[in-house]
From TrEMBL, chain A:
Cofactor: Mg(2+)
Pfam families: UPRTase
GO BP, one annotated term: pyrimidine-containing compound salvage
Keyword terms, alphabetized: Allosteric enzyme, Glycosyltransferase, GTP-binding, Nucleotide-binding, Transferase
Keyword Lipid metabolism applies: no
Highest classification ranks of the organism: Eukaryota, Fungi, Dikarya, Basidiomycota, Agaricomycotina
Record InterPro entries: PRTase-like (IPR029057), PRTase_dom (IPR000836)
Family: Belongs to the UPRTase family.
Native source species: Kwoniella dejecticola CBS 10117
A GO MF term: uracil phosphoribosyltransferase activity
Phosphoribosyltransferase domain mapped to chain residues: 32-221
Protein name (Swiss-Prot/TrEMBL): uracil phosphoribosyltransferase
From TrEMBL, chain B:
Protein name: Uridine kinase
Chain positions covered by the region annotation Disordered: 1-26, 515-538
EC nos: 2.7.1.48
Organism: Kwoniella dejecticola CBS 10117
Catalytic activity: uridine + ATP = UMP + ADP + H(+); cytidine + ATP = CMP + ADP + H(+)
Phylogenetic classification of the source organism: Eukaryota, Fungi, Dikarya, Basidiomycota, Agaricomycotina
Domain Phosphoribosyltransferase: 294-485
Length: 221, 597
């Protein structure tokens, strides 16, 4: 079983200060495997097209799903033997923060069959424009999708909307591609029971509140 | 028949000829029947291929002898006849000129590129892939293209100079000289050349006196003293029979009862191991066996895949998802180079770039699902395939077809290629070893091979690891044991693919009349009392009938999806059984569950 806040190192994480930053209890960073680092290199490259993002997102979703509960289940295999396995518990719902989060939906669908996906709108100023969420969202685990966590403003707004719709805070998993240390601190302090799963923590923010070195405006790309 | 008229196919000089009517290139022939049984021992090392060298004068009957041996060895999967004609030297423009003027001595030993001949034959003898030159009699020149040859079980080398060079002689297991009276050879030569090559008698005699006779007297005939056996060039049925009997006996002593050896060796280990621990990392924390982290999601996926009630849609979805996870883990093992890119903010980022000399090879059919996962992760990766099934008679794996990417086929690149070998499960490890051996035979480095699978048994890890310790294995689960099962089938509607298991879902055909004593060989009995038996009568098979398997993996026909009993006592309507080694608890026949609804 993977446990949060354990970071195993495969290679020195170049260009990142992930190991120097004190992360809050409820933030998890993916292991910096060669595969993850080469994928990140591809998506940071200004020449990269949008299609390549999906691979990293799937890694995030797989990690996120691991935080959902399971129950023991015995099944009979085709050879007639009994196998002690587990079954997934709880229904899930993916909520993407528009526009950028939509790019993550395909990655989610690769891992979850017939997952419900709702929409949430964000702008530079965190103000809700549009929310289209499944009716039974209060009973579900929510995978909140937003690739970039910079200042954390839009993310906090989206989480507030989910809470207003009755979702329990501990049932929200925030899946994120690249985060700034500031953003993580802000979100985790505000919502201590929520979990953040991010692929990479970058150095920080520039004067325009862009993550550096980052990967530009995800939504535009 | 190697001595030839340099002019016989040159239309400019002899316009009445019909080029292509007789092509000496066809002397190189490959006879392939069914698949190829293991050509290596359990240690993973190749057993040398049996090589027969046949020399003799022009028109002495070498080719007839070679073909007689070939047809007598029709049970041997791949017999290659390698003709000396392919190895004529590359010529200078002057030599080509001489050849067109009928003045080039093709019957002299120097006309043959012996070093290249030796190198190619040595490669083939050691079981490696090779590329032989193509010589064109139309252009009197070696062509720039080469012919890729791999996988002969027996090689017959024929040519007038086959016994001439000591380097070549050292490679033969059996040296044959076809002896024929000169007048008979000349008579045959005249008859053949007039009829097949449209030449006139004067020309033939002229060439005979200038080159052929000298060559025969000075080089060919004297080489007969190196022969193990001298066969008459006519009325030689008896001699050929003796020859073939000898060859068959030699081949028998080399044949390997392979999967059985593996299963036996592995079983002991597995039993010892399963007593001490259930899920351990291969050979005690070895880096080269990577078991995926057993997360909740992974266990959940495995539960769905193992459950016999899982429907096909669900199975495919989760198999694809699992493949993707396994592929991503395996890619973490591929070396990376530092790479600096500019982000859209104009900042340099020091990242990593994966070695892109990467190919996937799936072992069909059960490796098929994996190639979907690989394509998801790397869209443009070249994917090759090997079709490996198990021989219904012996239970051994058979290589039926291999279709490899060009980067592996060429020796110039194969040394650097990283190969992801894909198969959904590894039971005995026999098919995996065969696939690995094929790659090594092509010059792929064992450190560059990663085997990806959903499910592997302890015995398989042991066998593969012992033979190829440097090959990495990435698996989602390790099952403790291999269970033997008996699956009834109806031999009336039998096709080759029906009884053959595939890859590591090993299947062996057992005639019903002798269910208890299968083969004469002693060790077989052990399996009859194997630990899989006691469940026999209770097992209501969810392993779908192997009858549904089609030899051709692209056309899978579904005849009957009804569940079968694994009972040995059941005899109504079923006259034969197949014996299968299956992974236990396992997940059944992954290929069937993925492809057949």
């Amino acid at each position: 079983m993977s446990s949060p806040n354990v970071i195993t190192t495969c290679l020195p994480a170049s260009g990142s200060n992930v190991h120097k930053v004190e992360l809050p209890e409820n933030a998890l960073v993916l292991s910096p495997t060669r595969q993850l680092q080469s994928l990140l290199t591809i998506i940071r490259d200004e020449k990269t097209q949008r299609g390549d993002f999906v691979l990293i997102i799937r890694l995030l979703v797989e990690e996120g799903l691991n935080h959902l509960p399971v129950i023991d289940k015995k099944v009979t295999t085709p050879t007639g033997k009994v196998y002690d396995g587990v079954a997934f518990q709880g229904r899930i719902c993916g909520v993407s923060i528009m526009r950028a989060g939509e790019a993550m939906e395909a990655g989610l669908r690769d891992c979850c069959r017939s997952v419900r996906i709702g929409k949430d709108e964000e702008t530079y100023q965190p103000k809700l424009f549009y929310a289209k969420l499944p009716d039974d969202i209060a009973k579900r685990y929510v995978l909140l999708l937003d690739p970039m966590l910079a200042t954390g403003g839009s993310c906090i707004k989206a989480i507030e909307v989910l809470l207003e719709h009755g979702v329990e805070e501990e049932k929200i998993l925030f899946l994120n591609l690249i985060a700034s240390p500031e953003g993580i601190q802000k979100v985790c302090t505000r919502f201590p029971k929520l979990r953040i799963i991010t692929a990479w923590v970058d150095e920080g923010l520039d004067n325009n509140s862009y993550i550096v070195p980052g990967l530009g405006d995800f939504g535009d790309r | 028949m190697s001595s030839h008229d340099p002019n016989h196919l040159h239309p400019a000089v002899k316009p009445q000829l019909q080029p292509g009517k007789y092509s000496p290139k066809s002397k190189n022939m490959v006879m392939a029947s069914h698949g190829r049984a293991p050509w290596y021992g359990p240690d993973g090392k190749n057993v040398e291929t049996y090589v027969i060298g046949i020399a003799g004068g022009s028109a002495s009957g070498k080719t007839s002898v070679a073909r007689a041996i070939l047809s007598a060895l029709n049970y041997v999967p791949t017999v290659l006849i390698l003709s000396q004609d392919s190895f004529y030297c590359a010529h200078t423009p002057e030599q080509v000129e001489t050849a067109f003027n009928n003045d080039f001595d093709f019957d002299h030993p120097d006309a043959i590129d012996t070093p290249l001949f030796v190198k190619c034959l040595l490669d083939l003898k050691q079981g490696k892939a090779t590329e032989i030159p193509i010589y064109s009699f139309v252009h009197h020149q070696r062509m720039p293209e080469k012919k890729y040859i791999y996988g002969a079980s027996v090689i017959i080398v024929e040519g007038i100079m086959a016994l001439q060079s000591p380097e070549l002689r050292a490679l033969y297991d059996l040296k044959v000289f076809v002896n024929c009276d000169s007048d008979l050879m000349l008579a045959r030569r005249i008859k053949r050349d007039v009829k097949e090559r449209g030449r006139d008698v004067d020309g033939i005699l002229d060439q005979y006196l200038r080159f052929v006779k000298n060559s025969y007297d000075n080089f060919v005939q004297p080489s007969s003293r190196h022969a193990d056996i001298i066969v008459p060039g006519s009325s030689n049925q008896l001699a050929i029979e003796l020859l073939v009997t000898h060859v068959k006996r030699q081949l028998d002593t080399r044949s390997l009862r392979f999967r059985r050896m593996l299963a036996e060796a592995g079983e002991e280990k597995a039993k010892a191991r399963s007593r001490s621990s259930t899920l351990v990392d291969g050979e005690g924390g070895d880096d080269n066996v990577v078991l995926l982290e057993q997360t909740n999601q992974l266990l959940g996926i495995m539960t769905i895949l193992r459950d016999k009630t899982t429907d096909r849609g669900e199975f495919i979805f989760h198999a694809d998802r699992l493949s993707t996870i396994v592929v991503e883990r395996a890619l973490s093992l591929i070396p990376c180079q530092p790479k600096t890119v500019k982000t859209p903010l104009g900042i340099d980022y020091e990242g990593l770039a994966r070695d892109d000399r990467l190919v996937g090879i799936s072992i069909l059919r059960s490796g098929g699902p994996f190639s979907h996962g690989l394509r998801r992760v790397i869209r443009d990766v070249p994917i090759g395939a090997m079709l490996i099934q198990s021989d219904p008679r012996t239970g051994e794996p058979l290589l039926l077809k291999s279709d490899l990417p060009s980067s592996i086929k060429s020796r110039d690149t194969s040394g650097e290629v990283k190969v992801l070998l894909l198969d959904s499960q590894m039971g005995t490890g026999a098919a995996a070893m065969m696939a690995i051996r094929v790659l090594l035979d092509h010059g792929v480095k064992s450190t560059n091979i990663i085997f990806l699978t959903y499910l592997i048994t302890q015995p398989a890890i042991h066998s593969v690891h012992r033979a190829f310790p440097e090959v990495k294995i990435v698996t989602a689960a390790i099952d403790p044991e291999l269970t033997e099962m008996h699956i009834p089938y109806n031999p009336d509607s039998l096709q080759l693919g029906d009884v053959a298991g595939e890859a590591d879902f090993a299947v062996q055909h057992i005639p019903k009349s002798s269910t208890n004593v299968v083969h004469k060989n002693g060790p077989e009995h052990k399996y009859e009392n194997g630990h899989g038996q006691e469940e026999g009568d209770d097992l209501r098979g969810a392993v779908k009938s192997e009858n549904e398997l089609s030899f051709d993996h692209f056309k899978i026909h579904v005849q009957d999806t009804e569940e079968l009993k694994f009972s040995r006592s059941r005899s109504k309507g079923v006259e034969s059984e197949k014996r299968a080694w299956v992974i236990s608890p396992g997940m059944g026949h992954i290929g069937d569950r993925y492809y057949i609804s």
